Amino acid sequence: MSGRKLKLGLVGLGNIGKTHLRIVKELDNVELVGICDVVRNRADQFAADNGTTAYYDYKDMFDRSGLEAVIIGVPHYGHKDVAMEAFSRGLHVLCEKPIAVHVGDGNDMIAAYEAAKAKKPELIFALMFQERTLPYYKKIKEIVASGELGRLMRATWINTAWFRSQAYYDSGDWRATWAGEGGGILTNQCPHNLDFYQWVFGLPQRISGHANIGKYHDIEVEDEVTAYFEHENGMVGHFIVTTAETPGTNRLEIVGENGRLLFEPGSLKLYRTPMSILKHLKETAQGFANLEAQEEDVPVNLDAPSGHRVVIEKFAESVLSGKEDLIAHGKEGIRSVTLANGIMLSSFTGRIVELPLDADEFERHLQKLIASSKYVKQTRDGGHADMSGSFTKA
Q1: Of 103, 107, 340, 383, which has the fewest Cβ atoms less than 10 A away?
Q2: In this model, does residue 386 exceed pLDDT 60?
Q3: Ranges for the GFO/IDH/MocA-like oxidoreductase domain (predicted)?
């Protein structure tokens, strides 16, 4: 590759924007040509500290900075507008998760990308699903994809390691509101988990969701969720999350006909059975004949590069080389939003939701919640916190 640098701009300088900014400044093949935030003194300060130009409107930055690509780190509802404007100008996009608040907006973004790509075939659209790079998660994906577990029977994920205090929710007027964020733990913390679920197991056919609204926090969105998934191949999934437990749990159990894979932070174990469980249960003449499983510690390369930096590096290299090699393509983002919307629609309506999702029905529920909200948001200055403690260490 030549020594050319990617001319890049950042939109959104909140907590996650600081993470993007720090990484971009460390990359040799990227030139930061502008940063944008609606809070002028924030944009001015970061621009001065990083030797670039401050903008207060992303369209102005698109007009004047000479950028080729943009990283979008604004609140969720803003993803669509910024991305679609970028695509209309032929700009490459790396968008923070989730792709959008609801499936309708996500589909609009993908359609805008496809239209722009028809004119500029090398156009890149990527999503910040950095948890796909985490060593344990990569190994789980590898094992399941290999077919080693055989027919999948059950996946149960208890992930309550997302603790957030009231101070966190009070740190921004957009946080944990239907109008500002569009949801709670499923929209903010768990897009990574929902993406990982669909990345490994695919989308289910049916979803049963149970969401508690502001059960433990003074918020108007969900802070505790339990979901049940039914897949076409007969596999069932359980998804249990909350922002109210500490210490939290991150435990993923995957059962296949040939054994069980168990992940907990710092540990991945495979319990391998000597034959297919499903074959055994049909053929054995003994009523209580359990199979003895062999326990194995699965080796994982913990030194492999991971995290946001890998996603940004892959994005920049793909744009510069013209050879797409992304951690997550933008179009894949619609799947995790489908799961999140499906869980909430099931909870709203009290019924099982069939996929493909009725995106219009979900959006009608969301708009009704926004219009009828009487929630009074209390805010206090949370500053620009170190976000590193919020990222999963897997």
Answers
A1: 383
A2: no
A3: 137-261
